[in-house]
Design a protein that fits this description.
Blueprint (H helix, E strand, L loop, with lengths): L10 H12 L5 H8 L3 H13 L19 E9 L4 H12 L4 E6 L6 E7 L2 H13 L4 E8 L19
Antiparallel strand pairs: 1-3, 1-4, 2-3
Helix pairs in contact: 2-3
Length: 164
């Protein structure tokens, strides 16, 4: 567990986080100017947010189409029996699939919801779907395909004075 649950985020922290979500490569001097701090205290605050686990990582967000991953698939998975062993074996298998970019334990008709990115339908069927169907814990798979994405990888909606 990280220390983020214990860290009280103030208005400056939230502004820093919003700016970093928009541009993680922003120079510390520009970041400091935008939040009204000098560079040293700004840098210390960012390092504190990182060490507390509030900032988990920095990464580039790539164009899926530009790198040849033009099909986004959402797969609702139901496991055979609700047991820790089935769930654990399923999660372990899914974490080993690089095509699965998100996996959520959900309520409702499915137990898990996966977001999968692949070049095309044939790759999804021959690569991901076959591996999923081979897992003994899986009872049912319901698949939907994104026809167009209007918002993906969006920043988190941060609010001052509230941790939601």
């Amino acid at each position: 567990m990280t220390n983020s649950a214990k860290l009280q985020l103030d208005a400056i922290d939230l502004k820093l986080l919003s700016l970093l979500q928009a541009d993680a490569r922003i120079a510390n001097i520009a970041l400091a100017e935008q939040v009204g701090l000098s560079p040293s205290p700004c840098s210390r605050r960012v390092k504190l947010l990182e060490s507390a686990g509030v900032v988990e990582a920095y990464r580039a967000i790539l164009s899926r189409t530009a790198v040849g991953l033009s099909l986004t698939v959402f797969s609702g998975i139901r496991v055979e029996r609700h047991s820790h062993e089935n769930a654990d074996s399923f999660v372990k298998a899914v974490l080993a699939m690089p095509e699965v970019v998100a996996c959520h334990l959900v309520s409702g008709d499915h137990d898990f919801l996966l977001e999968v990115v692949v070049p095309d339908m044939a790759t999804y069927e021959s690569s991901v779907l076959r591996r999923l169907l081979a897992l003994p814990a899986i009872r049912d798979i319901r698949t939907s395909f994104a026809m167009r994405s209007y918002k993906a990888n969006g920043p988190l909606p941060l609010r001052e004075g509230s941790r939601w």
